[in-house]
User: Fold this.
Amino acid sequence: MKKINVAVAGLGRIGKIHLKNLCRNFSEIEVVAVMDVFNESKLIADEFNIPVFVIDFDELLAVPDLDVVVICSPTDTHADYVVKAAKAGKQIFCEKPLDLSLDRVKEVLEIVNESGVKLMLGFNRRFDPEFKKIRQLVVNDAIGDPQIIKITSRDPGPPPVSYIKVSGGMFLDMTIHDFDMARYISGKQVKEVYAKGAVMVDPEIGKAGDIDTAIITLTFEDGTMAVIDNCRKAVYGYDQRLEVFGSKGMAQAENNFPNNHKLYTAAGVSGDLPLHFFLERYDASYNQEIREFIDAIVSGSKMPVDGNDGLLSIAIGLAAKKSIQENRPVPLSEVL
Ligand SMILES: NC(=O)c1ccc[n+]([C@@H]2O[C@H](COP(=O)([O-])OP(=O)(O)OC[C@H]3O[C@@H](n4cnc5c(N)ncnc54)[C@H](O)[C@@H]3O)[C@@H](O)[C@H]2O)c1
Assistant:
């Protein structure tokens, strides 16, 4: 069988993870080309024995027999690259978010639909083994009718302010994963968003027009509620917990640790801190995410996370921003 020819654009933190997984784990594909605007990234191409390295996206699309493009470049390139790849007839995986403007996202999705190519968005947490099990418990009715979803999502430290300025802010860069997780776990649509936010970690983040600490309440169409708590800095590391409470019980996913053993002494009980950040904590999820993307291409089935999921998570983020600005609950229909 002919191998599927894949290219990766953007070889930063997330690009390197996807490249590593694509190169090491799939016999049915071949990574034939990579692209990054920085010439120095050719070293990464060499490390993984990728035959073609280019610094221009059009050149990447012109690589003969290319089937799939995995877009891992900065957020402000996603929409343009997705449009170009769709018009060139390539299957697309794109990191979140698709764009910071809902109008632009709608425009891009229309072009993707017209082109007939498949598009998957990079909401990797859906593929985390623990979170997948919790979703399965909900689907299997082990918890009964979900009533409250609680998501704790705190980073070990904030990114540079220069990154914050171009990221779309905490809701569109960080909480967007939690918005998608709440939708995924419940399997329901969000009706209303109410958010409170503050600057408690670094005043420079406030000066850049963003917040670093927040609580967001989502109300779903059937009345189910989700509470998300975020902070850009947790001194004990990456805090990623999930709980679903329902009419028949409750399911919880705790943090993941490098070691699960504890030391008990006269001074107290101690153990490891949680896995430090997303590269470590979600390692398995990135691998499974790309696995399911490739499987969907091979089998011709529906993408596990599609353009509409991308659009809705951005809409919830914009509604959360509006909620803070106007200090009121915002119906999702107001921003959609
Ligand atoms: N799903 C996740 O868990 C996750 C995690 C991190 C980042 N992301 C997303 O992935 C994207 C990249 O984030 P990152 O943390 O890897 O950033 P990064 O800064 O580490 O890497 C970005 C890379 O893109 C390259 N680049 C810059 N301009 C480019 C262009 N015009 N075309 C192609 N490449 C270009 C840079 O040289 C760099 O190598 C962002 O959109 C971010 O939101 C997702």
Observations:
- The domain at 4-117 is CATH 3.40.50.720 (Rossmann fold).
- Residues 9-15, 35-38, 41, 72-75, 77, 95-96, 122, 124, 173, 278 surround nicotinamide-adenine-dinucleotide (CB under 6 Å).
